[in-house]
Specification:
226 residues, alpha/beta, Rossmann fold, 6-stranded mixed sheet, 5-stranded antiparallel sheet, 7 helices, 33% helix, 28% strand
């Protein structure tokens, strides 16, 4: 089943001779349970693509459909609600709330949506990510790897249609990076979670089931990992 689809997605900045084609007609499709890496150098358009996929910025033209919904056919309020319910984000900088403990950070998206967290499901995620003894800790008392695991758990908490990870190991050393990526892959397999990860790192991309390469705002290759 198709979870994510883009059609002729473009994002341009500037005008005339100063026009920058950050995205230039991107067509991709991601199925349920896939772990996809989008690879590109700095300035290739990969981060712009992630912002479009997550509804964090609006395109110049084209469509993004998540779980069958044209997200840019929504007004800003509807898109905010949809994003909170259907799209989980994992950022390089973790983006945890410093005054909330680990458990409170994890269930925050559910609370913001006025819902009650599924305690059994949340507990299972916490156990899978090795955070059971850290639920009452504040982010400042955690290592970088632990903070990123909390961010992954938070992204999963609302049972989203898709998780978007933007350079999720960018602030971690190589050993911790590998541990976090293995957990991200495990999460995808255990919960049949669709994951799209943006990275510039070729080695990291090999953890994914499929690699999409982007250069100058265009998809130049799209296939299973060799």
């Amino acid at each position: 089943m198709e979870v994510l689809k883009t059609k002729n997605l473009t994002k341009h900045y500037g005008t005339a001779s100063n026009l920058v084609r950050a995205l230039d007609g991107v067509d991709i499709s991601v199925g349920s349970g896939e772990f996809v890496a989008v690879v590109g150098t700095s300035g290739s358009g990969k981060s712009t693509l992630l912002h479009m996929l997550g509804g964090l910025d609006r395109p110049t033209s084209g469509k993004v459909c998540v779980a069958g919904n044209d997200i840019f056919g929504m007004d800003d309020d509807a898109l905010t609600i949809f994003r909170r319910r259907k799209i989980g984000f994992v950022f390089q900088s973790y983006n945890l709330v410093p005054i909330l403990n680990v458990y409170e950070n994890i269930v925050l998206p559910v609370g913001l949506d006025g819902g009650e967290p599924d305690s059994e499901y949340i507990g299972n995620i916490i156990g899978t990510l090795g955070l059971s003894d850290k639920t009452n800790s504040l982010p400042d008392n955690l290592s970088g790897g632990q903070q990123q695991r909390v961010a992954i758990a938070r992204a999963l908490s609302a049972k989203p249609a898709i998780i978007l990870a933007d350079e999720p190991t960018g602030n971690l050393d190589s050993k911790t990076s590998n541990e976090v990526l293995l957990l991200l892959k495990l999460i995808g397999e255990r919960y049949r979670q669709t994951i799209v990860m943006i990275t510039h790192n070729e080695e990291i991309s090999q953890m994914a089931d499929r690699i999409i390469r982007i250069e100058d705002g265009k998809v130049v290759s799209d296939g299973k990992r060799p």
